[in-house]
DNA sequence: TTGGAGTCAATAAT
DNA sequence: ATTATTGACTCCAA
């Protein structure tokens, strides 16, 4: 059931309340015997396995290589992220963009998070992937043209699209320096359309500074920040949640892009991603911890690049979080062909690295990361019970 | 309840 | 037009 692409069972676009308008709206509501969250997307035929099952059995995939390849294929064929995401991954454009630009290493992904990558892998192996997507594209365009045509020729006056009329006179300048918030919607219907908070650069700066000192502010601190910045408490909380998780991700990436093999086939497009220039405030303090060069990270994820191969097994181990042997041999058959990617790599033994001294933002990130660790230690210390750390 | 992981979806930026 | 960014949500586990 459920065929993304097209459909649009959008019966009346009105259900305002924060209802869970999320994934897979058309949840069948008749079978007492519920099934798994099911398989939202078609999932290329293949041995009637749900993606979930495939994800569970999937061997390690090199997310970086996969996204790189997907981006290449998409751009080479003028296929957009929206179409790809919507029809192949079941994700929105923004999510796809994020995923392709900053894939997390496989071992850091949850089962759920691996799903999109397995789908991408499957897609890459489909000989007709591009062709199919292009067909979808054509269909969409056709439908669009039709819609448009009918509304223009037939019953011109009637607006088929419903809303979307109205132009609002936004006298407001994009410069909402301080004191903003509490915007009201004035349009006809009192829909109270959340204005979407947009934090001013200064506010972000302030929050980042606060983060540097304390990645995990106490509710009290949060309240203070909120009132000082004139923001809702929830906004500050959300900001910290988001910032932490995004910083974390950056660290993963940083960890990944080491081991540039230089030569090799296609020249990868290394994006330096310069960090923003922090401003001011020299009060760095912290002095204490230093020198401790995190030279040895857990397991530096492999990094393929080029066209190497080898299905080397993890030499890694150690520091595994939730123990997960997961050594399975399955005669999966079908899976083998699907997951044998001539890629992957070795467990590059990252040569310590002579980090470049400069880069204050990176330094700050590390400092914050240490605070992060300290926070956890303190938290855990409050509880008895032996422990095993993993940072 | 708190924090993390994934996403959505509005809107910025190209 | 597309793609990138990001505040807010949902779901989960501890």
TrEMBL record:
Cell compartment(s), UniProt: Nucleus
Low complexity bias: start-end ranges: 315-327
All residue ranges annotated as the Homeobox domain in the record: 190-250
Composition bias type Polar residues, residue spans: 285-295, 346-355
Annotation: DNA-binding region: 192-251
Family the UniProt entry places it in: Belongs to the CUT homeobox family.
Protein name per Swiss-Prot or TrEMBL: Homeobox protein cut-like
The species this protein was found in: Esox lucius
Parent-protein start and end of this portion: 1076 to 1466 of 1466
